[in-house]
Design goal:
The protein is mostly helical and 240 residues long. 65% of the residues lie in helices and 0% in strands.
Amino acid sequence: MAAETLVTVTITPEAQELISFAKTFLATATAVRITTPEEAQAAVDQTRAIKECGKAVDETRKAMTIPLDEQKKAIMDVFRPAVDVLAQAEQLLKGAIGTWQAEQARLAAEAKKERCRQEQLERERQAKEQAEAARLVQEADAARAAGDFSKAEALEDQAVAAQEVAAPFVCPVAVLAPTKPKGSSVRTTWKCKVVDPSKLERAYLMPNQVMLDALASTAKGVGPAPAGCEWTSSDSVSIR
């Protein structure tokens, strides 16, 4: 379990008093029940006081954090050139490695394709030799049936030779897996690019909510909404 790093923040008594004062507003707001115009006005006045307190809290906070933000920016600017060149160098090397691995994969695919081609040729050759051997056996049987034993033996020898020729042999092309450097890995990311929006299925279409909301803001509930839509509204309270 990682050790926690505690940061001590020192603030002025005035800031601490302001923070404590801000916490008192929540209890008041939680207990508010508006039943009369006077209570509604009191709630508005209380909201104004909360906004003023929030402004004071924000200004006090910024007085402490802006110098820290400026110091952080200065430190980031000092280190940014080194970070940028390291990122650039890393991307260049990753690109070179990716290109090499893609080429290795292409070569392996070409080797596999060539092996499949040779295996197909070998299967065709074997089938042809087997058919020739079967034909010679039939001719030998016919010659033997006709009493020509000398011819039958010669044809049988030829059939045996054809059978031997038809025996399979190992194709010389070997399919090697692409070599991968130690410590590296390749992750393939697939995406779907829209090339013709007019052909998209309805399930993949997304309404343009920004345009619809702009239309509703203009129409303000007057007139019919676009097909498949309805006007809706909500109110928010603004305290000046």
